[in-house]
């Protein structure tokens, strides 16, 4: 699974990040650059060390823009202070709260008053193409291949598909991803309430959609929470957004919108026959009160309250105890993807192993791009990844055996939450940042629950997993068409999904629905992504 930005959970990932991106504001500001141009100042490259620390002998100061989870001022964080000591690079920060960061980022691009570095900036592929082609963002490949990013270059050389995924149609790399080659989860999975399984004496969890229906029916009629009330909710969701991706795989679809099948043919899920099967099944659950009738109105917190009240049998969350309460344990098993009437099922949409949206970029006003690239490259290696993800040694953890990278947790003082403390130590908290998920970083720190989740993932998801679609870039004219089409399609499809599931629209109108989707451009959408997929396949 992808190593997530930990609390607050905010996955900023999308296989179709480019297609879903809103067209960025044009970088139309005419303000004078605040520093001399990079072309003039890149002569300082001979002052940058290509290996080891410090990165520069004489201290330099660079500005950085990033979203902030609000745990502590970045300049006071021990990780930032330690990195300054190691690198000789001091940072000044232009932070904005998570909820307002996108707005501030757009204003910064529009004004031309740019920071030197964009960090964890969630740069959509469309933004990378737009601002890269305008010269607002610097091409990074010359620094990667020029010896200033040895850790990242090693990863890219070993995994050429990642380089393809981050290279724009003009041949440049304008932003760097977060990389997790061990990632499996695309979205958080579904979990069974283990208390209900035990109460109903279920020895083996469902493996087909028919078996799931029978189990949910049993939940509805058997009072598994034992309170003498018919208050059990067999299956719950919030607007289906939390379960759609997982359920699609039961009917052979790898993604909520665009995916390529095993033969390389591109599909738009909401017009596939498998999608009709998905709607038909959920409509059946709805009619028999097996799907929560508050699905389209409740908040995530309201859903969790039902879990803590031991009312729900099947639900989505990152971890089951987030919904059910209690301590992390193996009590609540992960749902296994189910076989349906569709041939070749189940399938599971696997995470592509990197973020689609850029986590690190350099602006044209950056006076020291080589030093900046060395700074971020440290995060793609073991030492930097450990520092930025776990904080300095002897605060939350210590080495048990430094030679083998084996660590152990230290007691948390004052009864505080370890994660909340970590958020005061490092900026890598609640946001998706540049770097790599190196298993060595967590060596010795995984507890029994972590191992349980890894085992469930390996046994239940990996056998059916396939990356739905590579992180492709569209050409500017393609992007304009896709943005316009998806704006209308997304709204229409989601409205009709709710109507079909709840019975407001009879499934006998399926052909009429498909005709409308095609009229709105779905076939043209598929053609654009088929062309982009073939370009990606042919690229080096």
From TrEMBL:
Any Pfam family hit: SBP_bac_1
Signal sequence, renumbered to the chain: 1-26
Keyword terms, alphabetized: Signal
Region (Disordered): 29-50
Ranges of Basic and acidic residues composition bias in the record: 31-50
PANTHER family assigned: ABC TRANSPORTER SOLUTE BINDING PROTEIN-SUGAR TRANSPORT, ARABINOSE-BINDING PROTEIN-RELATED
Protein's name according to its UniProt entry: Extracellular solute-binding protein
Organism from which the protein derives: Paenibacillus aurantius
